[in-house]
Amino acid sequence: MLIDGKQIAQTIRSEVSDRVSALRSAGIAPTLAIVVPTDDESSAWYVRSLVRTARKLDIETQLHELNGRADELEELLTKTGSDPSIHGLICQTPLPGNLRLADIGRAIDPRVDIDGANPTSLGEVASGSTTAFPPATAAAVVEILRRTDVPLEGRRVVVIGRSNVVGKPAALLLLNDNATVTVCHSRTVDLPAVAREADVLIAAVGRPHMVTADYVKPGATVIDVGTNPTSDGGLVGDVDIEGVEPVAGAVTPVPGGVGPVTTMVLMRHLVIAAERR
Ligand SMILES: NC(=O)c1ccc[n+]([C@@H]2O[C@H](COP(=O)([O-])OP(=O)(O)OC[C@H]3O[C@@H](n4cnc5c(N)ncnc54)[C@H](OP(=O)(O)O)[C@@H]3O)[C@@H](O)[C@H]2O)c1
After folding, report:
1. Which of helix, strand or coil describes residue 143?
2. What is the pLDDT of residues 243-264, one digit of tens each?
3. Alpha carbon of 158 to ligand 1 centroid (Å)
4. Distance, CA 202 to ligand 1 centroid (Å)?
5. Which residues surround ligand 1 with Cβ inside 6 Å?
6. Whole-prediction pTM value?
7. CA-derived radius of gyration, the chain
8. What digits encode the pLDDT tens for the residues 118-164?
């Protein structure tokens, strides 16, 4: 069975839309600021898609483009995040020079950190607090599992990937939901055997079609976070969907799986931040 991420996104979208209307009625214009540090093409594509989605939801957007001026990034994040008319702030990657999001993310006020870039947000998630916003992609993984009624309590979950933006926060959120979580990475020995123990397998690697049927326990739910560009301008996931679908109980496609849900989770985070303000 294919899990329809677009359908899940549509459901979240109507919830977000109602909340935006309530904010507008109260005289509040929910506003998303997007800092774009470089002129990276795939980042620009994602930003355009975010702005379109925000507009359709009656959410205001502000774009701040730096064209690679690394020395201005920290100040821009601090200044924009403290602007009272802003409710959410995201900083696009890649970053210029040797900057790391884990360092520069500290400049984002946690109250507007709707994509969990500040390390304190990850710390809050680790401590089980629900005040901070986890990275939207990690939250989208959990959202898909909840909305498709996949049981998590006591179940074996294997996350392949340990980045701060996807693998680690996804593992922490699933642990908070009482799953038994194993996190794998490039040094994991006999990865297919570890993955085959999973009732729920999350692939967040960035290697096209790496996860084959050999990684999947029959009946398992497989969530494919990977977005790997193809030479013809398309996208493929980390999961070899043709091989995996007959073995898995359910699998998310790429595109049309985690991606659209991530965007809507981000918009929901923005609305929550605006409601709190
Ligand atoms: N759908 C969305 O909304 C969304 C959002 C964000 C990212 N993504 C996609 O998700 C994927 C992962 O993103 P990311 O930012 O987490 O990437 P990342 O920072 O490059 O992390 C990749 C992780 O995969 C592990 N890995 C690499 N090769 C491996 C191998 N052969 N076997 C096992 N593990 C391996 C790495 O292990 P080490 O730590 O040992 O190096 C690392 O932990 C990418 O395709 C990205 O485009 C999608």
Report:
1. helix
2. 999 999 999 999 999 999 999 9
3. 14
4. 11
5. 137, 160-163, 165-167, 184-188, 191, 204-207, 225-228, 258-259, 262
6. 0.97
7. 18
8. 999 999 999 999 899 999 999 999 999 999 999 999 999 999 999 99
